[in-house]
């Protein structure tokens, strides 16, 4: 899934993404950046992410990683 960072607090790691699919808000899971090239996110940044069973954004990565077919372990 793709979207844009709507809000992100680098101190708490809490954030909200806006999905391109339906413009809905998706809460960022607390471990969403683990294994990612990101250490923080900025408002308006485009990202690719997965959803967990609770509908939270996980495995956040850049569009370039997805476009190149790379896994987070390869970055």
Number of strands: 5
Rg computed from alpha carbons, rounded to a whole number of angstroms:
11 Å
Please report the number of helical segments: 1
Low-confidence stretches: none
Task: Identify the overall geometry.
Answer: globular
The number of domains is 1
How would you explain this protein's 3D organization?
By secondary structure, the protein is mainly beta. The protein has one helix at 63-67; strands at residues 2-8, 15-19, 25-27, 46-51, 57-61. A five-stranded antiparallel beta sheet has the order 3-2-1-4-5. It is globular and about 30 Å long. The model has no long low-confidence stretch (mean pLDDT 86).
What is shown here, in short?
With about 80 residues, this protein is mainly beta. The protein has one helix and five strands.
List the helices and strands and how they pair.
Elements: E1 2-8, E2 15-19, E3 25-27, E4 46-51, E5 57-61, H1 63-67
Antiparallel strand pairs: 1-2, 1-4, 2-3, 4-5
Q: Characteristics of this structure?
A:
OB fold (Dihydrolipoamide Acetyltransferase, E2P); single chain; 1 helix; five-stranded antiparallel β-sheet; mainly beta; 75 residues
């Amino acid at each position: 899934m793709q979207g844009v960072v709507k809000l992100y607090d680098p101190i708490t790691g809490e954030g909200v993404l806006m999905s391109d699919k339906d413009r809905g808000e998706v809460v960022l899971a607390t471990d969403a950046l683990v294994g990612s090239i990101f250490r923080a996110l900025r408002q308006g940044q485009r990202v690719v992410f997965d959803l967990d069973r609770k509908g939270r954004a996980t495995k956040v990565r850049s569009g370039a990683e997805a476009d190149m077919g790379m896994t987070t372990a390869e970055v």
